[in-house]
Amino acid sequence: MKIENEDELDNLIICQQCFTLHEEVPIKDGSKACCTECGGILYRYDSKLVNRGLSMSITGLIFFILAKAFPLIQIDILGSEQFITMPKTIFSLFESGFYLVGFLCLFLILVFPLMILMINILLFTLLKLERGAEMTKELLILLSYITPWSMADIFFISILVALVKLIAFGQINIGIAFWALMIFILLDVYITKRISLFELWMQRKRIFFKNGNR
Q1: Which pLDDT tens digit goes with each residue over 140-184?
Q2: Residue 181: CB partners within 8 Å, gap ≥ 6?
Q3: Nearest alpha carbon to residue 113 among 75, 160, 147, 154
Q4: Residues 21, 12 contacting (CB under 8 angstroms)
Q5: Using CA of residue 132, residue 31, residue 14, residue 116, what is the dihedral sign?
Q6: Is the CB of residue 93 less than 8 Å from the CB of residue 124?
């Protein structure tokens, strides 16, 4: 494939499975384009992507706040009750002198997930209103940098592992924040895994290029 100028790079896409280079072609609403070599999905076209992404991002933010505001679990061991919340878990690391681990947990399970939610809400809102061509570009670039650093799902798995180990030592009651965190994780996985950044770039191009913007 011969490339005459750099602008043609905007119409090329690399398969994430076998790294075969493809040229973007128009597809119908609700359909998907697949790799000619391995059959992996290259991109989809969904005209309701923006509305769906915005609604799920707002819902995710609501459950994210609930997960942080209420206790995750209550542990009763020999009559001693302990309520565990996400902020309390991080603060206990600082109080114990584990500052590096505390900062990592603070950013990986609190700051970065919240930033991703806020960026998604702002991004989908701008795309829906067809405003902010340059800002949406910067938001997508920022999103590509911080998305791999969101590890709230890893934290949730670690909670499940801890529950399995602690269940033999006392009574454990699941709090509302546990279920809120689980729903948030499912929404976050859908948004970050099901809606690819390339599809968002394509959606941006469809919206702003038709009006002559970049």
Answers
A1: 999 989 988 888 888 888 888 888 877 777 778 888 888 999 999
A2: 63, 67, 72, 86, 152, 156, 159
A3: 147
A4: yes
A5: positive
A6: no
